[in-house]
Amino acid sequence: MTRFNGRIRVVVVRAVVLLGAVLLCSPLLVFNSSARADDAPRRVLVLHAYNYTFPATSAAADGARERLLHGSSQKIELDAEYLDLVRFSEPGHEQLVANFLRDRYAKRRPDVVLVISGEGLPFVLKHRDAFAPGVPVVFIGISREVYEASRPPPDVTGHLVDSESNFDQMLALAEWLQPDARRLFVIAGTGPTDRRWQTTARRVIDRRARKFETTYLFELSYNALLAEVSRIPSDAIVIALTVLRDAAGKSFVPAEVAATLAGISKAPVYYPYFSALGNGVVGGYNETFEAMGRAGADIVREILDGKDPATIPARTNPERGYRVDYRALQRWRLSDSNLPPGTVVINKPLNIWDEHRNAVLTAIAAFALQTLFVAALLIQRRRRQHVETLLTESEERMTFTAASVNVGLWQFNRKTNELWATEHCRALFGLREDVELTRDTILGAIYAEDRDAAAFALRKVVKADEAATQDVRVVRADGPVRWVRVQMRSHPSDGEVPHLFNGIFVDITEQKAAEAEAGLQRQEVAHLMRVSVLGELSGAIAHEINQPLTAILSNAQTALYLLAKDSPDLAEVRDALNDIVHEDNRAGEVIQRLRGLLKKGEKSFEAIDLNDLITSTLSLLRSELIARGISVETELDGSLPETFGDPVQLQQILLNLFMNAMDAMIATPAAERCIAVSTKSAPSGAVEVRVKDHGTGMRPDQQARVFEPFFTTKERGLGLGLAICTTILQAHGGKLNLVNDPAGGAVALLTLPASEMLIAAQ
Amino acid sequence: MSNADATVFIVDDDAGVLKALTRLVNANGYRTQSFTSPQEFLAHHDGALPGCAVFDVGMPGLDGLALQEALGAPDAQRPVIFITGKGDVPTSVRAMKAGAIDFLTKPVSDKDLMAAIARAVDRDGDTRQRRAELASIEARLAMLTPREREVLGYVVAGRLNKQIAGELGTVEKTIKVHRGRMMEKMGVRTVADLVRMAQKAGVPLPQG
What we know:
A: 762 residues; alpha/beta; six-stranded parallel β-sheet; B: 208 residues; Rossmann fold; Arc Repressor Mutant, subunit A; 2 domains; 9 helices; elongated
């Protein structure tokens, strides 16, 4: 049924309920409403049961007017009349008003009559036909009892005030606010409405579960009422109902009476209507009169939209609720925390929320957004800080680790000339706290001779985009010379010359010291080996010195002999003396060579003619070679380039090779004992020395081990000769190969870089 | 024989030493021939020249001792003086056994060297004289007929002519003639001279 639209529903209801008696009217009505909807404004006649001085009815009328004139697509015209039925209660008054209305609205028929306040209902029911025959009636603020008692026709409907429910809820409110109250005072006047309230109050109070010591202050004169109320103890509940008329027959505006009573009562005063709220009463369960007006207006509009008033039952306003005055609560020391949920509190000092809700909301939204933003920023900041902390920690760990192993970290930007370096660099370069770490201060701490090398290494990195290492010495005021290894690497940059370098500084002083120590030990061993070799050769070497001594002695004796003659041959004497000088020099040279080989001193590094060195070494071995019946064939390249090195150490190598060759030929038949020594410049630019013997050669198992220390094939060898040769050669950038000659014997091939190569390499 | 008649051959591979030694020996009045290698010496050596040789022991190729051997048998060769830088005992013993006059250690004092050279030159003179005598005896012996040679043997053995005739199955008179010619060819008048000559030449005596 609910799915039917309005018109069908009207027809059905009509057919069933009204039967044929009203058949004639209803099509007209339907016709009227539909035809009138298109053109002329709809008329609503508003009848006030009271006059405009009653705030309640005025407020209700305002609410109705507001709802009817605004928010409706229909054009509505309002007419209003004050019936003032309560104040003018004498017999002829009703008829007077009815006639007035009849005359006035004879030509100006309303479409709906809206009656404000239930007091007007009996009048309208009685006189409607006079001024608005057949016009639907909607009333506002009629109590359920009155409505039901008057048994209105179907086209009279409206807004009900459920006094019983309102009273009940008001009492509940009082109980919430005054849970300890034991006494209840109920006040009402003597007018018809007042008496209805009396009945309602008694019924509701009797029905309630909680029992109060109840005093009904009914049927009192106004003054007596005031006197009674002023005596009510403060812990009681006072419910003021309407006093439209007192026992003395005097009329009152109930809201004003309630306000007066509230003013003199020591106990909280409750009032069922909204009208007294704000004038001293605590409040009650009610609806605003505006809301009543709106509720009635809504029904009017339903009817104007074509709905059959007979289908609209009278109904209560959904907008009812608890309404209290905050100031009254304060006055009677009632706690608003005891209020039931949903209570409307008026006169509560407005806080900023109430006053500027939107602004506050906006501000709160903005604040919330800001807070979110700030929170996001804070989170981000925290994350960043976390990452920064991690980074810092990581850097600290790295720096600490680096410093603990005596390493300084640095980065240099060539474009900006900016240097970043860890604090440890300061310690490495012996720079004071107040000295800034820059490229120049660090370079300044380096030995002047080493600065160029460091700069050279940096240039090399720039050019080749590769890593470089350079060891430099550091001048430190506080101690001995320190060695710092500079390791650097360039950051690759697209197409450009790299300008960002990073690297490390490592203190390698101890390493250098260890190297020096090892070097010293190597020198020591090398020296011992030389001494040992020379020891083996002592006989031969003695012979080498003996030869010139022999010549010297003979020459000297000859000279003496000649001079002893009567006519000495002075020319011969001079020759002899010259030879003595020559031979003496020769002996000196041998001694010189020996001294060189026997001395322990520092390594020297000088240009060397290997051919000379070979000749000199062979001359030292001459006697030994003769003694062993070994011949030497030399084939020395006259255009051999010079090489660089330590002459003593290189001679030691040659000595070793020659001695090995000699020792290899012990079992060789005398006629075949020959050592072939040749030099030549290799295609690579290196210098080669080839020493070939005619011995037995090396067995394969020996060949693999000849360079191992303490490996020897000789009966009395130490096995250190070739090991030392290798060490020396490594220091010279050379190498030594030992192979068997397919034709017999072994060949030692010694390669040394020519000085040009060394210069080029640097 | 004076120093001037003797030649001293000096071989040393060390030019300085060779020159100094040569100078010293020259200053003492000897002729000298000096060589820097044994091979050179062997190529130019004239064995007929009287004198001695001074060899360095340690020389490449052929050492002094080997060179000594190359000169021939000890009793026939030129006397050799060795000088050495080492002076080790085995080498010196070997050299002395091979007939070396002396084994001197460098540096050599002039007195030692000149004394050794003097002795060597003397010995060379003696050797040459003995060899000359022997050569003349052998030349005379070569002129004898076989029969005269037989007779010479018996005469030196002290047999009488009659005993010789008996041995040879002939008459005493024939033996006398052979004996006279033999004595004449040998250039001796007395049997004693003949015996001394025969001893020098080592003529074997007849059996019995």
